[in-house]
Design brief:
elongated, 368 residues, 4-stranded antiparallel sheet, 3 domains
Amino acid sequence: MRRKGNEFTFLLVLTSLLIIITFSNAMNVIDTTDVITDGQTLISSDGSFELGFFNPGNSKNRYVGIWYKKITAFTVVWVANRDNPLTNTSGTVLKVIQPGILALLNGSNAVVWSSNTSLRIAQNPVAQLLDSGNLVVKEANDENPDKYLWQSFDYPTDTLLPGMKLGRNFVTGHETHMTAWKSSEDPGTGDYTYHVDPTGYPQAVLRRGSVELYRTGPWNGVGYSGLPGLKNNSIYTFELVFDTNEAFYHYALRNKAVLSRFLLNQSGVTQRWSWVDRTQGWVLYLIAPVDDCDSYRQCGAYGSCNVGNSPKCGCLRKFIPRVTEEWEAADWSNGCVRKTALDCKTTVSSYTQTSNCQIQIIHGLMQV
């Protein structure tokens, strides 16, 4: 009987240890007494997202990032030290330090990356990976999002997740925008950015450096005028909020069991991807810009663009190229001018109807 009792006690202790180990490996929050090292991870409470160390593709560099946990395709949605890769993670830790900063420290205890400081001070700061994929630094047991000390959703990399805002806070001056990776094996800050321009009627703008490449057209209350493919669907809802405090675009999933993400890829193309369980892969749902005529100011002011024509650029009716020699050299950027100057003294006026056009901006540039 004593032997059986000892065996039972041993099994009970072993089971308890396994439960403790399983719990510790699946934690979603750390405080100032905890550290995350290479090989350890944080997992959101519902198991949707995971945070840890990774290397992209065949790269030997190590980064701290967040990725989808439940799918077979390794897909990173956020990177902390994107511009400061680690070549050696020995002694490297991710930890919360007072008064509430999340820091990545290398083996020499030097800061590789850290969240920015906050005006708020937490007595018991923690870092938590939420079910939304948002990594937050906050006061322990305080679930009020308005009191977060810092959150990764305010600093996207190349991916916009449901609940993220893309736009500008007029009160704080903070702008949230997307920045592409340099390559599939280098998540460093790339050439392309995508953000909301709140000037006039808000619209999304794609840039390469300081050069504007594409605009979605103004928000018309239903969607962006230049994105007819962005319409009501069964996967997600979307809206643009514009008031005295902020202007931002965001989206929400109709079914939280469905995975959908908005990506700015290394080539400067925005893509909407949705996960299909049956095929165990991502399916491309929407893409922009679609063709050359989507490019910003492709044919200049009062020019029209039609990808079915050769050349693709032309002038609107009663307009001619501003500089003929440039048009003959396939440089349409200076656009068109009126054949006949306006005469405001005349009492006769008329309008020319142009159908099936997409107005790209309000300054006269149009697309057929």
